[in-house]
Amino acid sequence: MFKINQISSFVSYKLLIIILSLFIGFLNPAIFSRIFNQTTFAALLLTSGLLAYLAFLDAGFGNPLYTVMREYFIKKNNKLKSSISFSIIFYILVSILTILASSMFAFFVFNSLKPDINMYSFILFAIGLSSNIATNNFRHIFQAIDKYILFEKILFLKRLFNLCALSFFLLPNGINYFSTSLICLNIFLTLFFINKLNKFFQFNLSDFIDYSSHYFWFKKIQSNALFFFFITILEVFYYNYGFIYFSFLEFSQEDIVKYSLFNKIYLSAILFTRIPADISIHLASDYFHNNNIIKFRKTVINTLIYSIPASILIVLPFIFFDHSIFTIWVGENYFNLPLKIALVIAVFSNCFHHIAGTYLFSIGNNFKTCLKINVFSNILILISLLYGATMLLSIEMILINISVIYSLTALIYFINFKRLLWN
Questions:
Q1: CA–CA separation, 58 vs 139, rounded Å?
Q2: Is the whole model's pTM more than 0.70, yes or no?
Q3: Most CB contacts within 10 A, which of 78, 290, 391, 409?
Q4: Measured CA distances, 230 to 49, 57, 220, 289, 362 (Å)
């Protein structure tokens, strides 16, 4: 069971991790813009953004796996051990695929933009970043078995290492040292996670090579995983559409930088606004599975009470101090009034979207419903992007249009949350 007396510790690590992630996310462009020319700067930002699409390589199994493991853990089901051994094998395979895909992404971007950097260094950079993504997959297992604080501690140290590793860019060929250090760290963490899980569950070799057991879990989760796989693809496009959009259409390097910085601010901001939902989901799942509906509803309301003020506070600096922030950050203010409007709409929309989506996925298993909503919203995004390309709209107007679609999607998500889980 989720221990209420551990919430303060969990929140503390969560906040530290998000602050570090935010700092790293803002420091990367600051370093790149000062060390590399604009072409290389745009290529590095574009590659970092394209790597977000690697999330779909888990074939949609991540969230359904968490849902099953969490329920089995709460109900002390004896199949928990075999579900975790399947998860370990699955995530190792996903990690390998992630690294291979990142290499292909980097090769594509390198040949498209021709950055002033060695191709092998550029590909190594992508592999280093993707190795970070690979080890993050283990989060599902540790959260499901109430070892969330342990994972958050490791993740905090990992973020701290990533921050220190940025100092390698101050050295000649520092990008190679940076990338190699990340790869070595994540290989070590993978082995560490497996060793920790082995201490908890005392696995033996047969647990990992039991084909019939793995096939059982694959078939059990397959249907929900298929829904979530498409949801993941749509959500990744939903949040990172511009990195593909700019890759195939003729936009200026300044537009690429504008979108990349806007997206980095947006994705960094929602790290804070998502904290209440990411914390409350563990407690809410206990209440829901134990049929304590009153406490479940109270948890949802408290989540909203914390999320909405967080959304307000996080956007204020970029509205009133944008010139100072951008000048210090990347040496030039790329922000303007339309981008501010787009940011406010997008952040507030995500506040409601994430709360409703988290509960629908992790508790209600409403994957099919969410898939329908995501298909609808992504069709609207595609229409908006095609219209923008046809009418030669500015990047600012495109972002405002997409943010309005975000708000409509959030409203539909919340209506379905109330219909399916509230009553």
A1: 13
A2: no
A3: 409
A4: 19, 11, 18, 27, 16
pLDDT of residue 411: 92
Residue found under tokens 């260094």: 121
Model confidence pLDDT, tens digit, residues 289-307 = 677 878 888 888 888 888 8
- Tell me if residue 252 falls in helix, strand or coil: coil
251: Cα within 13 Å, side-chain hemisphere: 26
Ranges of each domain in the chain? 1-219, 249-423
User: What tokens appear for 217 in the block?
Assistant: 């879990």
Say which DSSP state 420 is in: I
Contacts of 287 (CB under 8 A, 6+ apart): 293, 295, 296, 299
Distance CA 180, CA 184 (A): 6
CA distance 322 to 27: 16
Please give the span between the terminal C-alpha atoms of the chain, in angstroms, as a whole number. Answer: 24
Instruction: Please give the DSSP secondary-structure letter assigned to residue 290.
Output: T
* Kind and range of the H or E run holding 299: helix 293-320
* 381 and 238 Cβ atoms separated by less than 8 Å: yes
- Given a contact cutoff of 8 angstroms between Cβ atoms, the answer to whether 29 and 264 are in contact is yes
Q: Please name which of 22, 44, 24 lies closest in space to residue 175, comparing C-alpha atoms.
A: 44
d(C-alpha 196, C-alpha 345), whole Å: 42
The predicted structure's pLDDT at residue 6: 62
Cβ neighbour number for residue 96 with a 10 Å cutoff: 12
Q: Which helix (H) or strand (E) holds 95?
A: helix 80-113
Asked whether residue 185 carries a pLDDT value surpassing 90, the answer given is yes
Contact 241, 395 (CB under 8 A): no
Query: What φ, ψ does residue 36 adopt, rounded to 5°?
Result: -110, 160
